[in-house]
Amino acid sequence: MSMQSTNNWSSEPPSTPGRSSNAQAPSATESGSCESEPISSPESPESSGGGIDDSPMRFHNHFEDYMEIGAAPEVFASYLDIHQDWFQRCAQPMQADPIDAQSYAITVGHFGAFDYYVDPKIGLELLPADQGVYRIRSVPVPDYQPPGYAVDFQASMQLVAAPPNPKAPEPTATHVTWTLDLAVDVWFPRFIRLLPQGLIQGTGDRLLAQIVRQVSRRLTAKVQTDFHQSRQLPLPQQLQRQKGLF
């Protein structure tokens, strides 16, 4: 019995993982992330293992990290505001299909453990900035019923001007902080539920953290590179060595 993730990711660039915790994240407040709706039960598919247990198991991950951008916040914000120009390109090798002007259906990859695998697909809505804070939340994917799982994705990103350089009156860099609260409910086949609950919970939480780190690492590197290239800005040596995640 092994925990696996199989997809078409290339080898990972060097990076220092962001802070990731499997502890239940606190509920959203006025200054926190978007309020989340309760996860509804998906239609339970039939399984050769004897069907799906009626009660789901919940896995969760709280992730925080940052990255540095070599331009003022308003310059990077103008890039983020037209995500239609870059999101699908930077999301590769994940498939990102537009749902509407603000949302995408993301096919993440092939993941699983204990001979039970899924190809997660999630709808994400990229909300317009609100007082300098960008939020992303999960939305339903039209004409798609998740087979035995449900996802609640609530993320926020804030742009903050770096301390000014004494030799430059205007800010020349942006500090980007990123927070994600992710909860996944899974309706396992009964043959999985016969395993020790602690083993299932620990394996699922570790797999979820692995997926978050893997996707964040790729997206960070691609967004940083794509932004600087699209604005014909050099990537400073400090940013080339930056090991933060997005």
Textual characterization of the structure:
This protein is an alpha+beta fold and 246 residues long. The protein has helices at 73-80, 87-91, 190-193, 197-230, 237-240, and strands at residues 3-6, 19-21, 57-69, 95-98, 103-107, 110-113, 116-118, 121-126, 133-139, 149-161, 174-186. The strands form two sheets. Strands 2-3-11-10-9-8-5-4 form an eight-stranded antiparallel sheet. A three-stranded antiparallel sheet has the order 1-6-7, with helices on one face. A hairpin with a 4-residue loop joins strand 4 (95-98) and strand 5. The longest helix has 34 residues, at 197-230. Mean pLDDT is 76; it is low at 1-17, 23-41, 44-53 and 240-246.
Give the helix/strand layout.
Layout: E1 3-6, E2 19-21, E3 57-69, H1 73-80, H2 87-91, E4 95-98, E5 103-107, E6 110-113, E7 116-118, E8 121-126, E9 133-139, E10 149-161, E11 174-186, H3 190-193, H4 197-230, H5 237-240
Antiparallel strand pairs: 1-6, 2-3, 3-11, 4-5, 5-8, 6-7, 8-9, 9-10, 10-11
